[in-house]
Structures are given as structure tokens and as C-alpha cells.
Amino acid sequence: MDPFTALPDLALRAYGGSVVAASDESFAEKENLIRPGRPSFRPHTFGARGQVYDGWETRRRREPGHDWALVRLGLPGAVRGVVVDTAHFTGNHPACASVEAASVEGYPTVAELRAAEWTEIVPRSALKGDAEHFFEVAGERCYTHVRLNAFPDGGIARLRVHGEPRPDLSLHDGLGLDLAALENGGLVTDCSNAFYSSPNNVIAPGLARHQAEGWETARRRGGGNDWLVIRLAGAGTVKLAEIDTTNLVFNAPGWASLTGTGPDGEIVLLPKTRLLPDTRHRFRIAETAVVTHVRVDIYPDGGLARVRLHGVLGR
Question: Cβ–Cβ contacts within 10 Å for residue 248, how many?
């Protein structure tokens, strides 16, 4: 597993990603490419189009060219790595694949996207059947779309585009926003333990549907407590904190605290405060100092569904 996979999947459907077009999807739908979770497979399950696959599969190409799928990233950002997964495709996977990326403002049509300027971020590379392929990506450019190319045809189960969200925050000028949110450019940069699930889940869009969609640590047997650090979307002032333990009934922390770091050093935003299981807690923040990072301490261990830090950007 490559280190970049700890970063959010910018293309994930649950984060607003969409497969906006594909050259062909005769055997299996393009939308499967960005579904959450590992691909599933039930052998000898046939429909009108043949064996049912949890992935994207094109017909056998009888003319020159190759197949492709256009993906709008749910979280525009700097791409750090790509995973092309051919899980369960064995005799019908593409021989090779490549990935291109583009930055297109607004809400482009498919025709406008196809005419855009594309940059190759993963060169044409050989694929194996039923395997995950990991490709590191360099560069700081922010992208809004990617194009997956399959040579010449076949099936790919999942496309993961891991990176750092970098949205245009000018939309929020003069308005408040969730300074911690992934979709606004927040990112968990460090945590004490990620045994059961990724800490970046706590700043993901929407509500957690079950406890696996939050952050949960192993049971702590020694002293101390668990924690995570959130790099905010930008320097700002936190006005309202939400600490959500929804779905965590028997494994919620007993307490939590928030500590900000900014130009004036460390500032206590929320002192150690008791939490209830399966509850969305909201706390007004009296401290008005500007912070760039917030450390969330939970005592002694357990899990959180979401952390929201509502406030305003700027000094």
C-alpha cells in the first residue's frame, strides 16, 4: 500500500465525484468506477449483458482506438497518486491504462471537456488482471477532472484519485464556512491511531451512515489519549464547533477538547468536555484568535463520526 492512499480519494462518489461520460459501457456501468468500498463479485451471475461485474467494462473493440471515461472530481485538488483496480477482471481487463488530468472552471459540458487541455499524470502502463495498480503523481497543479484511458478495451473495477483538496474559496468571501471540511480544503495531517478507519472521515461531506464512515481507534490499554490534527482550509477564527458521535453507541469517547494553533501559538478553543454516545454536540467558541490548525483530543479512545469547525477566513 502506497503512502498516498492515506489521502482522500478526490474522485469518490460520496465526495461529489461523477463519471460524466465514457466511450462505451456495454457490459458494466461507468458509474461503478468511483463507488466507495472494495469491488464485489458473484461468479456465475449473468444478466442480459453477460457476467455481472462491479466495475466499468466496455465491449470488445473491433476498430482502431481505445476506450476512455471522464471523471469530474468531487474535491478539486492536487493529485498525489492514482489507483487503477482491475479486481475480478481476469480475461477481460485492458492490457494498459493511462490517466490524464485537466483544470476546467465552471460546469463544462462533455464536449467542452473533450476539447480541454489535458496533462498526462500517469503514463501508459501495463495492467494485470484482478490487481490494484499504484501510481505516484508529482506536481502542485490543481485539477478538476481526470480521464481514464483503457487500451484497447475491457474492464476496470475502480479508479481512485488520491490527493489534497484545493477548492476555490472565493465563493465564501464575506460568508462563514466549515474551516475543517475536506470539500473546503481541510485535511487531517496527523493522528495517534487509525486502526479501524481513516481520520479524514471526520471531515468528509455529509453525515456518517454507520460507524465505519467515521474515525475509530483501537482500544487504548496504556496511558494517554488519542488525537488528530486538522489543517484548516485557511487561517481563520472558529465560531462554532460540532463534535458528532453518531453511530458510536458503545465506543464513543468520554470527553473531547479542541486546541488551536496560530500566529499567537496554542489556544484552548474547547476545554475537556464530556461527550454522550450517538449524539451531535455543538459548542460555541468564545476564543477569537486566528488559527491555522486544530488538534482534537478524545479521552481516552474511541471514535468520532464528524468534526465541524464553523467560522470565518482571514485575520
Answer: 23
Strand partners, 79: 163
Residue with cell 474511541: 302
Distance CA 63, CA 84 (A): 24
DSSP string, 8-26: -BTT-GGGT-EEEEES--S
DSSP assignment string, 137-204: -----EEEEEEEEEES--EE-EEEEEEEE---GGGGTTS-EETT-GGGT-EEEEES--SSS-GGGGGS
Select from 314, 244, 237 the least CA-distant residue to 269. Answer: 237
The CATH H-level (homologous superfamily) assignment of domain 3-165 is: Galactose-binding domain-like (2.60.120.260)
What 3-state class would DSSP assign to 88? coil
**Alpha-carbon gap, residue 143 to 166, rounded angstroms:** 9
Distances in whole angstroms, Cα of residue 280 to Cα of each of 75, 177, 246, 306:
25, 18, 6, 9
Cα separation of 145 and 147, whole Å?
7
Question: For residue 56, which of 82, 14, 85 has the smallest C-alpha distance?
Answer: 85
Domains 3-165 and 170-313 share a fold: yes
Task: Name which of 196, 227, 226 is nearest 212 in CA terms.
Answer: 196
In the predicted model, residues of the chain with pLDDT beneath 50 are: none
pLDDT tens-place string over residues 264-297: 899 999 999 999 999 999 999 998 899 999 999 9
Q: What residues does each domain of the chain span?
A: 3-165, 170-313
* Domain 170-313 CATH (choose: 1.20.120.330, 2.60.120.260, 2.40.50.140, 2.30.42.10): 2.60.120.260
